[in-house]
């Protein structure tokens, strides 16, 4: 198909695929925000696995490769029980292994412009330990 406008003298070419509307196709509907939710859930689940004592290397390196472009020094801002601190990703994950009964509530990435690499990880978590008075 050739498209033109009265503002541009150069044509734009676009390929359109026409399919049989009666053909049975398996199509997946895309729900807005669903892709982002899957990423957040994936990160949260892997971090929670580390906190629960699952294999550290498998979960840690999965996250580093998939979301951090192999940069273990990405900054992590952690909010836990109203306290906030900043650390690097490796130190944060190591802390999860020794933190004891940590529940990861939320995980959010800040992605570098024109890249797929995270430059910041924001975590909200709480201690599952109940303090009796």
Share of helical residues: 25-40%
Mean pLDDT: 82
Number of helices, where a helix is a run of at least 4 consecutive DSSP H or I residues: 3
Q: How would a crystallographer describe the biggest sheet?
A: 4 strands, mixed
Report the C-alpha radius of gyration, rounded: 22 Å
The helix/strand order is EEHHEEHEE
Shape verdict: elongated
Distance between the termini: 74 Å
Labels describing this entry:
3 helices, four-stranded mixed β-sheet, alpha+beta, 6 strands, elongated, 31% helix, two-stranded antiparallel ribbon, 133 residues
Description:
The chain is an alpha+beta fold and 133 residues long. It has a domain at 37-127. The protein has 3 helices and 6 strands. The chain has helices at 34-51, 56-67, 89-99, and strands at residues 2-3, 12-13, 75-80, 83-88, 102-111, 118-127. The strands form 2 sheets. It has a 4-stranded mixed beta sheet. It has a two-stranded antiparallel sheet with strand order 1-2. A hairpin with an 8-residue loop joins strand 1 (2-3) and strand 2. Helix 1 (34-51) runs antiparallel to helix 2 and helix 1 crosses helix 3 (89-99). The longest helix has 18 residues, at 34-51. The protein is elongated and about 65 Å long. The N and C termini lie far apart (74 Å).
